[in-house]
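Give me the fold.
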Amino acid sequence: VGICVADNSAVWVSVMLSYKGLLLVIGVILSLETRSIKIPELNESFIVGAVIYTIFILSATLALIGFLLVDYVTIRYALIGLLINIGTTVILGIIFIPKVGTV
């Protein structure tokens, strides 16, 4: 497994992490603004908060793995792929399992 590395890869990663962090902050603000909606079917602020928390924890873990396991490319690739799949499954479960119970 090969890795493409550029001279400014640290800058690129910093810009992308900042952008994704800004999107998470905007999601938190929108979740806080919509938590007082009176219609229970539309009030999903708890679910959105749980998803944002899960994404933050997974992103921090993936960034840590990406920076620490630079020399172990295969292990890094396997762990990142595994965590992305687990994270996607958990997030979909957080979103859709409560809705299945209401049907």
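Residues 73-102 form the longest helix (30 residues).
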